[in-house]
Amino acid sequence: MTDLRKKLAEEASQLIQEAETQLPGWAEQRLKKAYHEEEGVAETQIKNILRNLEIAREKNKPICQDTGLITFYIEVGRDLQIDFSIQDALEQAVKDATGELPMRPSIVNPLTRKNTEDNTGQGVPHIEYQPMEGDEIKLTVLIKGGGSENVARQKMFLPDEANEIPGWVVDMVKEAGAKPCPPIYIGLGIGGGLDISAKLAKKALIKEPNTSKGEIGKMENKILKKVNQLEVGPMGLGGNTTALGVSIETASCHTASLPVALNVQCWATRTATTTIEAPK
């Protein structure tokens, strides 16, 4: 085992455990803001979520019993010499984190439903690779539970129907109701193709929402406002906060198409990032 492979596996395992036990600072701040804007049952639900976060952090336990399906986004410096399988190293990281934290085994064969017992399997963890300059590795983990993943949707709009996207998102969130454990985060992938838009929608969930500029930023804010007017509320019990944020990623597409994918994350937006330097 090379030193870099060992370091990648160890730091990836720690990154998973960090994401499983504590939210990004911006996510916790959004929950606290929502708490002050709610009342009654909705306020109680947010209060319980915040208390849950405190306990998870203090006891180093998973935020949610559904410890999810893991996706890695990895950027590898062009100056690095990789003489090992990154896939194998990250699979080992998932196995180690599953045993150490521990995490609930949730990954099964899609047809037989046989559980792999270690949260790895064919194509799991999913890994998105991208080169970058330098001699470091930037690694981001995204963890999603089944409830939020099950309400993902996709639609091939006509090229001139971009103005219909916000309304479609609102309809899909209304249809989902309490299933994705709101308040939710909404990731949208617009453009590319059927497959590309789906990847973009999931990737949108790793960044702080409602931070885009220009027309994309306007659409994010419009969708967030309209979704919260649904009053689905925390855990589907009513209230002002159905969504905590919206993030959009785009790609150029064919002139004859406008693919759009919707991915949803529950309130437990489990993501974390680290930079790994090669051992000297």
UniProtKB/TrEMBL annotation:
Keyword Metal-binding: yes
Molecular function, one GO term: 4 iron, 4 sulfur cluster binding
Residue ranges the record marks as coiled coil: none
Name of this protein: Tartrate dehydratase alpha subunit/Fumarate hydratase class I N-terminal domain TtdA
Keyword line: 4Fe-4S, Iron, Iron-sulfur, Lyase, Metal-binding
Entry's transmembrane regions: none
UniProt region (Disordered), positions on chain: 104-123
Residues of the Fe-S hydro-lyase tartrate dehydratase alpha-type catalytic domain: 10-274
PANTHER family registered for this protein in UniProt: FUMARATE HYDRATASE-RELATED, L(+)-TARTRATE DEHYDRATASE SUBUNIT ALPHA-RELATED
Family listed: Belongs to the class-I fumarase family.
